Amino acid sequence: MVKRYAVILAAGQGTRMKSKLYKVLHPVCGKPMVQHVVDQVSQLRLEKLITVVGFGAEQVKAQIGDKSEFALQEEQLGTAHAVMQAAPYLQDKEGLTLVVCGDTPLITAETMKALLEHHLATCAKATILTAIAENPTGYGRIIRNNNGHVEKIVEHKDATEEERAIKEVNTGTYCFDNQSLFEALTKVSNDNAQKEYYLTDVIEILKAKGEIVSAYQAPSFEETIGVNDRVALSQAEKMMRERINRQHMINGVTIIDPEHTYISPEAEIGRDTVIYPGTVIEGKTVIGEECIIGPHSEIKNCSIGNGTTIRHSVAHDSEIGHNVTIGPFAHIRPSSKIDDEVRIGNFVEIKKSTFGKGSKASHLSYIGDAEVGADVNLGCGSITVNYDGKHKYLTKIEDGAFIGCNANLIAPVTIGKGAYVAAGSTITDDVPGNALSIARARQVNKENYVDRLNAKKKS
Ligand code: UD1
Ligand code: CA
């Protein structure tokens, strides 16, 4: 098999984004653009992947990690100059090299594979991935001769009125014969509107040498969109969202309103789960089968079992079991572990706590740094008092304990198995198993007090 290499261009600042964040790090559906590209390109069985970095090099490298090798482009003199930086890794190699821009987050491995096949089938030295754009403004235009063969690519800024009317654009993805590419790159000049070394000039250079240059049209323009500003970013976001949601629906997930459902590319969702509008599922979240999620819920990096319902709630970095009910208006904060059949009701905040099977906190509670056993009932308004202003302390509530309404459990403290805590108690000491603890002032009724008070007022 012909050896395959790839170069991803990711050194530009992205001036048109008007951002402190380097362009290729802007997220699309929660994942940086360049990471989308790397993840797709990595599916192509490559000998080597080189990412050209420059602006924000350290951040871009940290994002991509060991999936790629890196070449540094110290000055951003154009896309041809960027590819040149990969010469020390590639220039002598025999094989073909795919070049992809780091700002085309929707490009798929499938289309790149089709491009490679077309390239090999046509015995070309260069094959351009083109697309038909409704509005081609900003893109390089594909100039074809009378026979329909590609002659050159003209950048928007350098194009004549007539050329600007052409709707076939350069997507910024190409396949080259590796050695022809690096040889042609040495001949590129910066004699153009932007005073940049354009990679697109390689096409004309190869043509002049009598080499075959071919073009492969992408099945849709959408997939090849280049993100240069925030308008394109929002378009990419919408298209990626549609792609992700569609795949989940095909897999058997019901999404009531896909236009208003935001799912990360890393999320996994089981069959017959129903996602209601306004739901945001971020990071590496795994949701089981037959769950009901939303409306209006935010779930990040959680694993959720089967048959669980989460309505109008927020859950981050936590494990949630099967047949759990959460919300409306609950907040599950990081490092919580909620076992099967637990019920977390409205206005309940859980932080770094475990809940055993079948336990309940149905209304208005704060449970932080707690180990709650199985079948525990936390009454309305139960609070773990876990913080003294300096340190956090643990509350243990053992299996079957019953905590009355409005109890404060001042940590560190343990409530033993099956114990009862009376409503309104402020518990400062451990409660033994099966005990009843009442920690509140006794009630005093002053008979006829109001009559005496009124009599006093009159006299
Ligand atoms: C480029 C193409 C244009 C094509 C469009 C597709 C050129 C000259 N033009 O234009 O024909 O229609 O992509 O989206 O290639 N980069 C570097 N170093 C540089 C300059 C750019 O690494 O010195 C990187 C950028 O980070 C970016 C990519 O190359 O990821 C493309 O650069 P950009 O400036 O966005 O090119 P366009 O003007 O969009
Ligand atoms: Ca671009």
Automatic annotation (TrEMBL):
Q: Which UniProt keywords apply?
A: Acyltransferase, Cell shape, Cell wall biogenesis/degradation, Cytoplasm, Magnesium, Metal-binding, Multifunctional enzyme, Nucleotidyltransferase, Peptidoglycan synthesis, Repeat, Transferase
Pathway(s) = Nucleotide-sugar biosynthesis; UDP-N-acetyl-alpha-D-glucosamine biosynthesis; UDP-N-acetyl-alpha-D-glucosamine from N-acetyl-alpha-D-glucosamine 1-phosphate: step 1/1; Bacterial outer membrane biogenesis; LPS lipid A biosynthesis; Nucleotide-sugar biosynthesis; UDP-N-acetyl-alpha-D-glucosamine biosynthesis; N-acetyl-alpha-D-glucosamine 1-phosphate from alpha-D-glucosamine 6-phosphate (route II): step 2/2
Which intervals of the chain are annotated as region Pyrophosphorylase? 1-230
What is the UniProt remark on how the cofactor binds and its stoichiometry? Binds 1 Mg(2+) ion per subunit.
Q: GO biological process: any one?
A: UDP-N-acetylglucosamine biosynthetic process
Its cellular-component GO annotations read: cytoplasm; membrane
Which residues constitute the catalytic centre?
Answer: 363 (proton acceptor)
* First-listed, main subcellular location of the protein, grouped into a coarse class: cytoplasm
Tell me its EC number(s), please. Answer: 2.7.7.23, 2.3.1.157
* Function per UniProt: Catalyzes the last two sequential reactions in the de novo biosynthetic pathway for UDP-N-acetylglucosamine (UDP-GlcNAc). The C-terminal domain catalyzes the transfer of acetyl group from acetyl coenzyme A to glucosamine-1-phosphate (GlcN-1-P) to produce N-acetylglucosamine-1-phosphate (GlcNAc-1-P), which is converted into UDP-GlcNAc by the transfer of uridine 5-monophosphate (from uridine 5-triphosphate), a reaction catalyzed by the N-terminal domain.
Q: Which HAMAP family match?
A: GlmU (MF_01631)
Q: Which family does it belong to?
A: In the C-terminal section; belongs to the transferase hexapeptide repeat family. In the N-terminal section; belongs to the N-acetylglucosamine-1-phosphate uridyltransferase family.
Name used for this protein in its record: Bifunctional protein GlmU
